[in-house]
Amino acid sequence: MTPKRLVVGISGATGIAYGMRILELARKAEVETHLVVTPAGQLTRLHETDISAGDLAAMADVTYRPADVGAAIASGSFRTAGMIVAPCSVRTLSAIAYANNDNLLTRAADVTLKERRRLVLMVRETPLTMAHLRAMTAVTESGGIIMPPVPAFYLGPESVADIVDHTAGRALDLLGIDVPDLPRWGEESVPNNETLMSEEKLIWNT
């Protein structure tokens, strides 16, 4: 039986915490992870974390060099559940949108799309130009999913870690990878319907 595999890409936008948390949650879900980090992604690691390149690599089951375009994840015959790029820079978004397979990350993403597997890009940029939006449209038309890491404040997060956890879990949801403790609307982690209805009556009667 083929193990459930997930390809994780980390590129040079701010928000490397998302990619790191996805690796941790995938390991808890017993999903085999294959990681590729671009040079700009490593630069982000230096700016935003205290961990070494070796520590980051150890969070995945298999790690590849960006220049290793002959790696397993560069072939469609290597079966995976899909790929998440977290964070995804605009440069990486654009390369994926127009099949510019200039490194292993963008090649693996292109393979994911051509094999009709699920590709999730956590694009980290704002404000957006028309060029950004057109690249997002091109990825969507090719079957990919654009998922900017937008926090869900209705859950009442108490820390940045809470925000990262929920967003990372939602990204894994899109690939059918279950995160058991992920807070969800309508469950115990949010106000129940009775509370919401009473509050709504108060609002409309004032």
Describe this structure as you would to a colleague.
With 206 residues, the protein is an alpha/beta fold. 42% of the residues lie in helices and 15% in strands. It is built from eight helices and six strands. It has helices spanning 16-28, 39-48, 53-58, 90-97, 104-114, 130-141, 160-173, 193-204; strands at residues 5-10, 32-37, 62-64, 82-88, 118-123, 145-146. It has a six-stranded parallel beta sheet, with helices on both faces. Strand 1, helix 1 (16-28) and strand 2 form a beta-alpha-beta unit. Helix 1 (16-28) crosses helix 7 (160-173) and helix 4 crosses helix 6 (130-141). The longest helix is centred in the last third of the chain and has 14 residues, at 160-173. The radius of gyration is 18 Å and the shape is globular. The N and C termini lie far apart (61 Å). The mean pLDDT is 92.
Summed up, what is this model?
This protein is an alpha/beta fold and 206 residues long. 42% of the residues lie in helices and 15% in strands. Strand 5, helix 6 and strand 6 form a beta-alpha-beta unit.
